[in-house]
Write a structure and sequence with these properties.
Length: about 120
């Protein structure tokens, strides 16, 4: 028997796109799909504990809120016509700065602060 290794949760999609997701994973025994109610996803995500969440792309920043609350989860957003999709995830990374001068240190701090302000 195949073992489920990926927990996928789906919410805030039009019914047609929900059907597409259902069909995409119907014959994938390693993926467990749970359709969550629209709206406040916090409790539903706590219960489902998905590895990946698929959401409809909205004007809100709900996907960022989810990522901040559940940083190990990836969020895939789909446009209403399913022509575009985005994978949103938090990925810690380090990049070498090399030898740092006073000016280089100031620049690195300003760049890091700018990246965090945009989130």
């Amino acid at each position: 028997m195949d073992r489920v290794s990926i927990r996928l949760a789906v919410s805030e999609l039009p019914s047609l796109l929900m059907d597409v997701v259902r069909e995409a994973f119907a014959d994938q025994p390693d993926v467990s799909v749970e359709f969550l109610p629209d709206g406040d996803l916090g409790a539903a995500v706590d219960h489902a504990r998905p590895d990946v969440m698929i959401l409809g792309a909205a004007e809100s920043d709900a996907h960022w809120d989810l990522l901040l609350e559940y940083p190990r989860m990836a969020v895939l957003t789909l446009s209403p016509d399913a022509r575009d999709a985005w994978v949103c995830e938090l990925q810690p990374h380090a990049r070498p700065l090399g030898e740092v001068s006073l000016a280089g240190l100031r620049t690195a701090v300003r760049e890091a602060a700018g990246r965090h302000r945009r989130r």
